Amino acid sequence: MAANSGGGGGSSVFGFNTRQIVIAGIIGGIALFLGATRIGFIPVPIPLIGNATIMHIPAIIGGALEGPVVGLLVGAIFGIFSFLNADNPVFLNPIVAVVPRLFIGVVAWAVFVGLRRWSIDLASIAAGVLGSFTNTVGVVGLAILFGLLPPAVIPAILPQAIAEAILAAVVTVVVVRGIMLFRSGRTTAPEIKPDEERRY
Predict the structure, then answer these.
(1) Structure confidence by residue, pLDDT tens digits, 159-184
(2) Cα radius of gyration rounded to whole Å, the chain
(3) pLDDT, tens digit, 9 for 90 and up, residues 7-17
(4) 67 vs 43: CA distance, rounded Å
(5) Which is nearest to 44 in space by CA: 109, 7, 88, 77?
(6) Which fold, 18-198?
(7) Please, is 47 exposed, middle or buried when counting C-beta atoms within 10 Å of its C-beta (0-12, 13-18, 19+)?
């Protein structure tokens, strides 16, 4: 299937056209701001857990709106910030800090593409939830695998994971719907548009 032509000709789903470069730069800039100011990392009073985060949300939105390459790049920014600014020994391991974050936007893209034919809002919510869980499950799973966290920590992480997923779902559905309205020039966003079909 073709990716978004963005006015510059078609490309494969893993292609990278001018509009995607611009969008990746904008969303990546937001991720950089959240990371550099530490706004994207929210301390929680639970030992070993580290910070709650909203840094995964730009990766989810980038993946849903512009495809897996944009999602992967924005997720990489999140992971690199986690590693470079680690205040928890878990994230001093670059595999734990970076690798799971690469897949946040990719999973969000796959979920969004799979569900958007039924409902853009449903697709956005599911992309937000599953993209967020990709981050949590990936980080915690690798941390346990490397012996950096005990399996007993999982129940303590669940409330934070659920809160992050709900927040991601709400923000994703609002942003995706708003951007689709802006692109369409309509007061109500269509469930799907021919241009959106061509993007993937």
Answers:
(1) 888 888 888 898 888 888 887 777 66
(2) 17
(3) 333 445 555 56
(4) 31
(5) 88
(6) Arp2/3 complex 21 kDa subunit ARPC3 (1.10.1760)
(7) exposed
